[in-house]
Amino acid sequence: AHRDGVLRYRQFLHYAEGSMMPPLLVLLVVNRIPLLGKTAAKRIQPMIDVHLDYVEAELSSRPWFAGDTITGADIMMSFPLEAARSRAGLDG
After folding, report:
1. What global pTM score does this model have?
2. What gap in Å lies between CA 26 and CA 19, rounded to an integer?
């Protein structure tokens, strides 16, 4: 069980910046482009939704990303989740 927590810790530590943050950053940029930005945002949002669904499924089985206690992975994941909350449809 400890090994699983260590693996999840490493996974989410890197997932935050390497997988989840890039489409959020692209969304931030395209939303500032007049006209074509809205079209591009409509194509990016489904990618972000896949990430949000994945994160929700992962957290449905445990209180924190790596297991039963807060770790650096939770801190790292807070950044893309806050970005998603403010500009990509994550609420609550």
Report:
1. 0.87
2. 12
29, HSE (Cβ side, Cα atoms, 13 Å): 7
Contact by Cβ (8 Å): 83, 22: no
CA distance 92 to 31: 22
Residue given tokens 């445990």 in the structure block: 62
Tokens of 60: 């449905």
What is the average per-residue pLDDT within 31-43? 87
For residue 64, give every residue at least 6 positions away whose Cβ sits within 8 Å of its Cβ, in sequence order, or none. Answer: 70, 71, 73, 74
Name the nearest CA neighbour of 22 among 52, 44, 54.
Answer: 44
